[in-house]
Amino acid sequence: MFAGFYWFIKGVIYSLLFSLVIWCHQCCVSLFCLSANSG
User: Fold this and answer.
1) How far is the CA of 34 from the CAs of 7, 20, 23, in angstroms?
2) Which residues span the membrane (predicted)?
């Protein structure tokens, strides 16, 4: 029971971290593209 809950929490945290990394990556790429286009 506790092990399943632990794995569930672990999966949620990992998915949140993954989505955060993807979001930051897209923001950085868009900012880089904007600066490259303007300059």
Assistant:
1) 40, 21, 17
2) 12-34
